[in-house]
Every structure is written in C-alpha cells, then in structure tokens.
Amino acid sequence: MNKQAVARAYLGIGTNLGDRLLNVRGALAELARLPGTQLTAISRLYGSAPWGKPDQPDFLNMVAEVQTALEPLQLLHECKRIERMQGRVAGERWGPRVLDIDILLYDRLVVNTPELVVPHPRMWERRFVLQPLADLAPQLAGPGGKTIEVLLNDKEISSQQVWLWGELKELDENETA
Fold it and tell me: For the whole model, what pTM was predicted?
C-alpha cells in the first residue's frame, strides 16, 4: 500500500483488569494519535464472560473503526505498543489483561503470517467480537457470506454471555452530571 492509500480497519478492544473504562478510553485516545490514522467510529461497550479461562474477571469489549495509511504490520506494532504503554505484560493465553487490541479486519485484505492473521481467525465464532462489530457494520459478511446479524442468531454464538454495558458518550455525560 502506498503512503496515500487509506484502509478501513476494525479493531477489537478488550480489558478485564484495572479501571476497564479508563483502559478503553486510553486505547481510543492513543489510536486517534497514530500517524496517518483517524478514529472514525466506535461501538457501544459490552460486558462478557471470560473466554477460554473462566476463573478471571469479566471483560469489557468494544470495536473501533479506523481509517489508516499504516500497513497491517505497522498497525499491529502500534497496537502492541499501545497495549504495553497501558500496562499489558505477557501472560497466559486467554488470561486476564489490562488491554488487548486485535486487528479484526483490514479492508478486504487477507494476511496470514506467523505474526498476523487477518481476518482475525476466531472472530466469527465469538459474540463478544461480533456484537460490538454489529454496531458498526451489521451487514458485513463473514464465512459463507453470512452477515454479522445472521451469525449473531446462530445458536452457539447467541448462547455466549454478552451484555450491553453502555456507550462512552452516555458514560461521559453521567460523569459530568
């Protein structure tokens, strides 16, 4: 991709340690500061039960849409830098974390390297990813051409514990009231 080209990327943001709301706000602020990148939309916030390792605090999840001139690997490296800056340390797979930022989609690009896989390989199976993504792109098609709306009605996906937590704008207004 040349320097003038801009891609739309969807980023999954999750946190279950510390001040989760502060972690999300910090991630969004840092994403908005990335070179050649504009934060264009954010989903509502969703709570979810932990995935893979149930004996940990619930997660707060959302999806951010960005327009970026960064290449996929550059964007990944920036996301990892933001995670470290917010206090993330290497830990066990599916374990608790201060912040997790995943590249879910990067335009229609397919990337399959040891460092990065896009579309995110398990996103189509996880309600905590699909529910906030549906806020931004409900007609987006996944495997087999099924839209996110259709996938959310799948029996296995709809049975996963996810609940609406709120919207950042509403939370901001409540804090100043």
Answer: 0.91
